[in-house]
Fold this sequence. Notes:
Keywords: Cytoplasm, Glycolysis, Kinase, Magnesium, Metal-binding, Transferase. The chain has helices at 5-11, 19-22, 40-46, 83-97, 110-114, 123-129, 148-160, 172-187, 216-237, 253-262, 270-275, 280-296, 310-313, 315-330, 332-336, 340-350, 353-361, 364-370, 387-404, 421-424, 430-448, 502-516, 532-535, 540-545; strands at residues 26-33, 54-60, 70-75, 102-106, 118-120, 163-170, 193-198, 241-246, 266-267, 302-307, 414-419, 454-459, 469-474, 479-484, 487-492. By secondary structure, it is of the alpha/beta class. α8 (172-187) links the parallel β6 and β7. The chain is globular and about 80 Å long.
Amino acid sequence: MTKSALQIARAAYQPKLPKALVAGDVKVVEGAATQSVADQKAIQALFPNTYGMPIITFESGEAVTLPAINVGVILSGGQAPGGHNVISGLFDGIKKLNADSKLYGFILGPGGLVDHNYMELTADIINEYRNTGGFDIIGSGRTKLEEESQFEKGREIIQQLGIKALVIIGGDDSNTNACVLAEYYASKKYGIQVIGCPKTIDGDLKNEMIETSFGFDTACKTYSEVIGNIQRDCNSARKYWHFIKLMGRSASHIALECALQVQPNICIVSEEVEAKDMSLDDVVTYIAQIVADRAARGHNFGTVLIPEGLVEFIPAMKRLIAELNDFLAANAEEFSHIKRSHQRDYIVSKLSPENSAIYASLPESVARQLTLDRDPHGNVQVSLIDTEKLLSEMVATKLAIWKKEGKFVGKFAAQHHFFGYEGRCAAPSNFDADYCYSLGYTASMLIANGKTGYMSSVRNTTAPAAEWIAGGVPITMMMNMERRHGELKPVIQKALVKLEGAPFKALVAQRDRWAIETDYVYPGPIQYFGPTEVCDQPTKTLQLEQAK
């Protein structure tokens, strides 16, 4: 593998670990029994063997040598910076316990387990990928582990390779699959452990025990660098409004964090739009008014941050999409035979009156995008909806009306951007390099202590890494029942932006001033070498949530 100078320098970086993990062996401290965040009876009935387990914290213990163990690892779902360091930490952890332990990587996600597609990850391979971005060491995939036949195919190769435990690195849906798999293997008494690791740059897999999902720090810093560059260009040319859509289908954590880092003129937060029961026109009017107010001061430029999933959070649109999801799930075969030119009329004729009227009022392009193929979870692929263009076009239309009425005296020209893939495989920040390595190492300790159905947890993450608290949290503790493909299923509850939380309150306290003033911040690129206050800082979100 050809490496850049930065990769060569980063290969030598030794990620920092919580003090309790440095000795190599740990003492397990168990907390009280747990329960799911909602739907307790339903979740307990579905997971009788893995429900109610205690939260685990690791403390320093005496180093011991354990029998060699073989472990399997899967990268599941979309890429996030730091995945290679989770694998590196897992590898180093099991090797520290016994040098003869082996790590097997299943190729291209959960499908590799089902199809028996794997490779042994040796020290030579691991060392090529330390502190690098991407998931290319073994690739990732979105195969869902749901069927008993899949579980049994997985068991065949697991037992053939003598694997004791399987580590699934993924987001909320991937870890839901890990929980289902752990329960199945436990119910069959196969002796196969399953451990999850919390990954998603969207930041929507978090709770009291999972303070942040890995990759969020790096992705937000990557996006903030580019937004900062755009803002500097914006403030130089002074003739464009930049509408910037940011990754985050189910939550606005990325948009909020980037806003706190760069101080744009406008940041839409989907959760607030929903809470205030705002219509699409309400959102457009809010943006247009700020454009008009800045124009009155002679500033015909600015920046607007838009969460990728905004359309789904507008209550009227959300109701429409929910009915569309259920209808298309039940009538996919019939819909597939409708000519494209007739599909719009077909949908209008099949929906409830309220949703039919909303659907009929949408621009053709947006209506079309709402009926395209669903994602693997049965949801609208909102990343395909050009929300940034939709909003800017509607703002332009409203401003044209205001201009005729004498309410708008400036000029309006828009540029559009969508930042998604640009951040998914960035070289991890020092925070993510340390955090991911610690998550992987913690997973090895959960395996060594015979645990299954747990997610690797590292807390106290605004403190120096030595003071981080490593342990495990039962995955069932995070679960609730949600409607997927028209039926209720157990899934990990998504963490949305809390409107009463400190990060959102920090935005609210400043946004009126940011709207009118041009008080941009230009964060610059991620720094890997230098003083800790430059290189090792966690996100603004974490600092505000933990009041540090």
